[in-house]
C-alpha cells in the first residue's frame, strides 16, 4: 500500500521516474541494435525514447506553486526533476542514437573536414620533435593520409548509396584506420623525450577521437553480426590506449563539432566508449 500511496501523493515524480526508465531502456535497446520496427525515417525504439524524453521535459518545466509554505520544497523537487530530464536528454547521443542510415552517413561525412585537418596536423608534427624521435613518429603515422582519404571516400559513397555493400566497405575501413591509429598512439607513447612525446601523442589523439566517433556511428547502423566481425578484426583494443587519451581534449572536440556544452560531450563520450568496448573493440 505504501508504494501505491507514494505514487498517489507524488504523481509528478512517479511519472518522471517512469519516463526516465522508458528513455533509459530505449537508449540501451538502440545501442544493442534492437529497433522493434521502423517509424518514419527512424525506428520505433527511438520514437518512443524521444516521446518519453519530451514528456519528461514538459514535466520538468511545470511551474512551482506560489504558496510560501511549500514553495521551497517544490522548487527543490522541480530542480531535481530538471536534472533528471537533462540526464535523459543526454542519453540521446548524437553518434549513438540509432538514427536512420542516411542520417548517420551524413554525420560521418560531417566529421571528415575535421578528420582531414587532424591528419594534416599529424603531417607537420614530426618537425616539432627531437631529431631522434621524428623518424619513429613518421613511421608510426605513415599511412594516415591514405587511410583517412579512403575513409572519407567510403563515407561519401555510403551517404550516396546507404546499402549493404557500401556499409560493409565503410565498416572495414573504419576498423582498419582505427587499428592504425591505436598502433601509432602506442608507438608515440614509447618516445622517451617528454616534449616530443607530448607533441606526438597530442597530434595522434585528435585523429583517434574522430575515428572513434566515426566508429561509433558505423556501429550504430551495423547488425550485431557485423559489429562482432568488426570487433574480431580489432586486435588493439580501446582499453590499451585509454591511458594516453586526454578526456578533456576529446570532449572539447565533440562539443565543438555538435555545437553543445562540454559537459554534455563528456557524458556522451563515456556512453560511447562504454558501448564500443562492450562490443569488443
Structural account:
The protein folds into 2 domains: 2-90; 101-278. Helix content is 74%, strand content 1%. The chain has helices at residues 2-9, 11-31, 44-60, 68-90, 101-125, 134-140, 144-160, 164-188, 194-220, 224-233, 247-258, 262-278; strands at 38-39, 42-43. Helix 2 (11-31) packs antiparallel against helix 3 (44-60), helix 7 runs antiparallel to helix 8 (164-188) and helix 9 (194-220) crosses helix 12 (262-278). It is globular and about 60 Å long.
How are the elements arranged and paired?
Blueprint: H1 2-9, H2 11-31, E1 38-39, E2 42-43, H3 44-60, H4 68-90, H5 101-125, H6 134-140, H7 144-160, H8 164-188, H9 194-220, H10 224-233, H11 247-258, H12 262-278
Keywords:
74% helix; mainly alpha; 281 residues; globular; two-stranded antiparallel ribbon
Rg from Cα? 22 Å
User: Uncertain runs with pLDDT below 50, 5 residues or more?
Assistant: 60-92
Number of helical segments with 4 or more residues: 12
Give the CA-based shape.
globular
Spatial strand sequence of the major β-sheet: 1-2
What's the rounded overall pLDDT mean?
Answer: 78
Assess the beta-strand content as a share of residues: under 5%
Distance between the termini: 47 Å
Helix content: over 70%
Sketch the major β-sheet: 2 strands, antiparallel
Number of strands: 2
What is the helix/strand order? HHEEHHHHHHHHHH
Overall tally of structural domains: 2
Summing up helix and strand content along with how strands pair, one would put the structural category as mainly alpha
Amino acid at each position: 500500500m505504501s508504494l501505491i500511496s507514494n505514487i498517489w501523493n507524488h504523481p509528478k515524480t512517479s511519472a518522471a521516474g517512469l519516463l526516465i526508465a522508458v528513455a533509459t531502456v530505449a537508449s540501451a535497446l538502440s545501442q544493442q541494435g534492437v529497433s522493434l520496427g521502423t517509424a518514419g525515417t527512424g525506428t520505433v525504439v527511438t520514437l518512443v525514447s524521444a516521446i518519453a524524453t519530451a514528456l519528461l521535459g514538459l514535466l520538468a518545466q511545470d511551474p512551482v506553486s506560489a504558496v510560501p509554505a511549500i514553495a521551497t520544497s517544490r522548487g527543490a523537487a522541480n530542480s531535481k526533476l530538471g536534472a533528471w530530464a537533462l540526464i535523459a536528454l543526454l542519453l540521446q547521443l548524437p553518434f549513438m542514437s540509432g538514427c536512420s542510415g542516411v542520417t548517420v552517413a551524413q554525420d560521418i561525412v560531417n566529421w571528415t573536414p575535421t578528420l582531414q585537418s587532424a591528419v594534416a596536423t599529424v603531417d607537420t608534427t614530426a618537425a616539432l620533435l627531437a631529431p631522434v624521435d621524428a623518424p619513429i613518429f613518421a613511421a608510426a603515422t605513415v599511412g594516415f593520409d591514405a587511410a583517412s582519404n579512403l575513409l572519407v571516400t567510403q563515407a561519401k559513397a555510403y551517404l550516396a548509396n546507404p546499402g549493404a555493400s557500401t556499409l560493409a566497405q565503410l565498416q572495414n575501413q573504419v576498423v582498419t584506420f582505427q587499428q592504425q591509429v591505436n598502433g601509432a598512439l602506442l608507438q608515440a607513447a614509447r618516445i622517451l623525450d617528454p616534449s616530443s612525446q607530448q607533441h606526438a601523442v597530442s597530434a595522434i589523439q585528435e585523429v583517434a577521437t574522430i575515428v572513434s566517433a566515426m566508429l561509433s556511428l558505423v556501429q550504430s547502423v551495423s547488425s550485431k553480426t557485423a559489429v562482432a566481425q568488426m570487433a574480431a578484426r580489432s586486435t588493439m583494443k580501446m582499453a590499451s590506449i585509454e591511458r594516453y587519451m586526454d578526456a578533456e581534449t576529446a570532449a572539447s572536440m565533440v562539443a565543438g563539432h555538435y555545437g553543445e556544452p562540454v559537459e554534455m560531450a563528456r557524458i556522451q563520450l563515456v556512453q560511447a566508449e562504454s558501448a564500443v568496448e562492450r562490443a569488443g573493440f
